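Collaboration report, partner site 2.

Our partner group contributed sequences for two proteins of shared interest, and the home lab folded both. The records are reproduced in the order in which they were received, starting with the first partner submission.
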Amino acid sequence: RAVETGAMMFAEYCASEIFREIPEGPARPLYTDSRFRWYAERVHAARERLEARYEEPHTASDLARSVGMSVFHFTRVFSELIGRPPHRYLSEVRLKAARRMLREGRSVTDACFACGYNNLSHFSRSFAGRYGAPPSRLAAR
């Protein structure tokens, strides 16, 4: 479904989860205390990139490369520090921007494509799932 809707970051995340090693015994932390700051700085840089350029297509590979990490480790650390994977974080950023645009009077279609979605029905379902009402209802106000 991720590939069909063009959600490449989500597809990469799913692939990384499929190949993630499941440790035996107690789970080891992803990072030591001394590495925490290094990881936090990189995750912060990735978040800033997503927030500033949410309308652009992003992949987990591109984000990881931009902060000097492997895609598998990046998605795990991002999820650990932010509480959700990069694709979900990007989706939330896009939906917030779309809600703002709709409140400013832009059309649903305009907001959809301006926020980086390339499928109007996927956008509408995502918006309704996040805010409990379709974007057309907000636009009508």
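Second partner submission, folded after the first:
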Amino acid sequence: NVFGTAVATRAVKFATAAFCVCLFVVIGAFLQGNEGIETLKHLSQGGTVQGAFITMFTAALTVTIMTVIGIPVSTSQAVVGSIIGMALAASGKANFGQLPKLFICWVGTPIGAMIISAFFYRVLGPIWDKISDRFDIETLDRYLRIALIIVGSYGAYALGANNIANVVGVFAPFHPFNTLSNQWLGAIGALSICVGVITFGRKVMLTVGNDLVPLVPFTAFIAVLSESITIHIYAMVGVPVSTSQAIVGGVLGIG
């Protein structure tokens, strides 16, 4: 979701994208993953570590099936759905106190990214046109490639800060995970995201980059910048949201 448009437009190699994601997702999880972890930690209170395992297994299985098919889906929604399903199955009750906040943010994610993307496209588009008249194509491609790597790395940071809660949040209340700080728990969990990127990330990158709206490197830059800002905002709020919905909103805002 953070490098798909860049890889699909062949502005950035997959290996470069994977390296940047792995580095910055760990940094983002370590520095700013705490708020999201706390949100899912409270949603998971009252359960057991065995229940947490089942919750994560079912969420991971759902997302894995979608990934193999090549469809980007929301890990955040899969995890929260699994938490609620597990709570209802175990006790017939679920902690719905956090859900209104989550639902509002989920709806606001693609809409917010779309608005930000349309704004940046309208503002930066004329500036880019003027720059294009002054430089040759090779120089423009080089600068755009650098810009895409920078904004993709920022997106990976925001991904780690926001979505790391999906990986470790349900385990946080239980021993031995509660012996670690949220920072280190997030950083360790981020390593598993890195494994996912390296093994199965390419197919979803191409889906995001090719199958929504035809993009060139400049519009790819706008889409990822808009997605990254949106996800980072929700990371600071402490609500894990969908990077898939954010990048779709960003791409559609351009379209």
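Feedback sent to the partner group on the second submission included the following. The chain is about 80% helix and 0% strand. The radius of gyration is 18 Å.
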